[in-house]
Amino acid sequence: MDTASTGQHRIGAGRGAPDSDQCPLVAPGFWDAVPIRAALSNRHMGKVIAAYRAHPAHPRPISQAQMGRWVGITQGQLSRIENGPPIKYLDRLVQWATLLTIPADLLWFQLPGQAPRAVPAAIPATAPAAGPFRLVRITDASGDEDPDLAAVRAFRSADQSLGGGHLYTAVIDYLHTDIAPRLFGGDQRGDARSLFTAAAGLTEMAGWMAHDAGHDRQADQHFRRALDLAVVGRDHHLHVHVLASLSHLSLHRRKPDAALGYAHDAEMALSRAGRNPELTARIYALQARAHAAQHQPGHAHRLLDQAARTLEAPAEPVASPWASHFDQASLASDAARCLRTVGDLPAAARNAHRIIGLRPVGTRSHAFAQLSLAAILTAQGHPDHACVVATKVLDSISTMNSHQLTLQLHGLDHQLRPYLTNRMVGQFVDRLTAVIHERASMHRTAAIT
User: Fold this and answer.
1) Which residues fall within 8 angstroms of residue 160, CB to CB, at 6 or more apart?
2) 138, containing H or E segment
3) Among the four 208, 249, 268, 287, which has the fewest Cβ within 10 Å?
4) Where is the stretch described as Disordered (predicted)?
5) For the segment 221-272, what is each residue's pLDDT rounded down to a tens digit?
6) Residue 100 lies in domain
């Protein structure tokens, strides 16, 4: 009888029972078992294989040795696949998915010859408590929107609530399974230039998420690759945007000379790409931060004023849709950092308050602003007020995997230590220490490999 008419799926032609030399048949409901669904959700093919072998639909569990014989590997090799890190290479994932005939709609990657996967849309703000999980809910792109651009927007939205430590792997998976087959495989959908631009935008996003996860060397590599891809894609505003990202990363790595160089390169590139107020304001703000780090407060103040005036100009022409917006809250964030560096704490505090008023509660940028304000208040000799502000942060970031947030928590902890005789400060620091310890465990669990 034809297997299609019975609702069964063969793993291999002519294959039979578990104790034979061939894979068994499985019914459609086979894939609804909780252990298999959990393994698929965790994106770990080795765990999928283990759950497959132990499935109660088999007359008896399939041994590793038996499964190994079916695929031509040893029991030890299969054990390492099942118990080791997740398989990252697309060709191996496709081999296992094809062998086990896993339905395509359950996979986190695209099989050759299948229609493009739907685009990840915005996800709920609350993440699962622990462990790997599917970070995006799959829905259709709206209207005629480019699916890759829709994916970038969805990842950006999720990033604000979850942090780069959780989302980095999801972005890399999208690059490997959705972009790479179109760039280097036989899939000819779309024109080459727009595809390179999509690769540049997503690669830059991967750089930001690596940076947020505390992996600046990987971030630098991603930014440099994105720069080359943007050149091939001829998206000049995206090219400027990536240069600005490299400037920001250099500032974080305490390399103000390099940061200023990238910012000047971005300014020159923008002069050739066409005027855009948002990008111009971002460049001025980065130059201001670099001059502040070089102990040149006059230059820093002047450039911040230029950035503010520029951002008030009409927003035409529109920059690349792949470049993230630089708005009033973005400028206030750069200004607060710059003004803290030059010692203008009252002005820095005003900018931190401005960000808190502009960014939604529960987002990373809102938490950054609150911690910045707490640090400023402590420096001004108001540790009680700082603890009140920072307590709100601790209540809102339990599922936000951002190493940069954790660094700010460490900095605040160091600032508050001289005030431990203050009862309120002592109680807050005890809680802060516990939160930092919990976050260290979170970062280890979601470490970038």
Assistant:
1) 363, 364, 365
2) strand 137-139
3) 268
4) 1-20
5) 999 999 999 999 999 999 999 999 999 999 999 999 999 999 999 999 998 8
6) 9-105
